[in-house]
C-alpha cells in the first residue's frame, strides 16, 4: 500500500494559475482549460501586459472555464456579470450562450474595458452582440432589474467586484436567479486570508461565504480553485 497512514498539511496554496509556478496548480489548470480559446488567451495576455498591478483582477482561466460549464449545464440565456474590468468574464459567458443570449456586465469604470478589452471582443462581433456593458453601481443596476420584473429570469451570475458588497450582490442575484440557477462568487478565499479575516475585504468575503453556507435556499460548495470560488445553486 503506497498511501501514507496520515496526511500532515504544513501549508496551503491559494493562487490563480497565471500567478504561480506551483506544479500542481499548473497541472490542474492545464487539464481544466483545454477549451480556453485563442480569443480568451489574447484578452488575458493583453490585460496582464497593459494594466499594471490591476492585471491580476482578470478571472483565472480555470474559473472562467468552470463558469462556461455552469452556463451550459443550466442552459442559460441570461447571465449577470458583476465586475467587468477588461471584459474577460463577459467574453467567456458570451461564448457559451446561444445567439439570442445576453450577458449584462456591470462596473463603475470602463477605462480598462475601452483600452484593453473592447478591441479584442469587437473582433468577434457575434460575441460582442450578446454583451450589454453597463456603466454604474452594480447594486443599483441589479436593483433596477428587480424593479423591472426580471426576478427569476436569469440562470447564472458571476460576482467579482468590490468585496464590501458581496453579501448584497449575493442577495440580489439570488432574487434574480431562477430555481436551479448558479451563482459563482470569485475570490472567495482571498489569498487564504478568510481563514483569519482581519482586513475589510477578507471580513466581507468571509461574511458572504458564511451567509451562503447558512442559507436554506441554496446548496453551496467552497472550492480552492483560482483565488477561491463559492459555487452556489438555488434550490428548486
TrEMBL record:
It holds the Pfam family Methyltransf_3. The keyword S-adenosyl-L-methionine applies. GO terms for molecular function: O-methyltransferase activity; S-adenosylmethionine-dependent methyltransferase activity. Keywords: Methyltransferase, S-adenosyl-L-methionine, Transferase. Transmembrane segments: none annotated. The keyword Cell division does not apply. GO terms for biological process: methylation. PANTHER family: CATECHOL O-METHYLTRANSFERASE DOMAIN-CONTAINING PROTEIN 1, O-METHYLTRANSFERASE-RELATED. Belongs to the class I-like SAM-binding methyltransferase superfamily. Cation-dependent O-methyltransferase family. This is O-methyltransferase. It comes from Pristionchus entomophagus.
Amino acid at each position: 500500500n503506497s498511501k501514507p497512514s496520515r496526511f500532515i498539511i504544513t501549508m496551503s496554496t491559494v493562487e490563480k494559475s497565471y500567478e504561480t509556478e506551483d506544479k500542481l496548480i499548473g497541472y490542474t489548470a492545464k487539464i481544466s482549460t483545454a477549451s480556453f480559446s485563442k480569443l480568451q488567451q489574447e484578452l488575458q495576455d493583453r490585460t496582464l501586459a497593459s494594466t499594471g498591478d490591476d492585471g491580476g483582477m482578470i478571472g483565472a482561466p480555470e474559473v472562467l472555464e468552470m463558469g462556461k460549464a455552469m452556463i451550459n449545464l443550466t442552459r442559460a440565456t441570461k447571465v449577470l456579470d458583476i465586475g467587468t474590468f477588461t471584459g474577460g468574464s463577459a467574453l467567456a459567458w458570451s461564448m457559451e450562450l446561444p445567439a439570442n443570449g445576453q450577458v449584462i456586465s456591470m462596473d463603475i469604470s470602463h477605462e480598462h474595458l475601452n483600452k484593453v478589452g473592447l478591441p479584442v471582443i469587437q473582433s468577434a462581433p457575434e460575441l460582442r452582440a450578446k454583451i450589454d456593458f453597463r456603466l454604474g453601481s452594480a447594486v443599483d443596476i441589479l436593483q433596477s432589474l428587480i424593479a423591472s420584473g426580471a426576478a427569476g429570469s436569469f440562470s447564472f451570475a458571476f460576482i467579482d467586484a468590490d468585496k464590501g458588497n458581496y453579501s448584497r450582490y449575493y442577495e440580489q442575484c439570488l432574487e434574480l436567479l431562477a430555481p436551479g440557477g448558479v451563482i459563482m462568487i470569485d475570490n472567495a478565499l482571498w489569498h487564504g486570508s478568510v481563514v483569519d479575516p482581519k482586513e475589510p475585504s477578507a471580513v466581507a468575503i468571509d461574511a458572504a461565504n458564511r451567509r451562503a453556507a447558512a442559507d436554506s435556499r441554496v446548496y453551496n460548495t467552497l472550492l480552492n480553485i483560482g483565488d477561491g470560488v463559492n459555487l452556489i445553486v438555488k434550490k428548486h
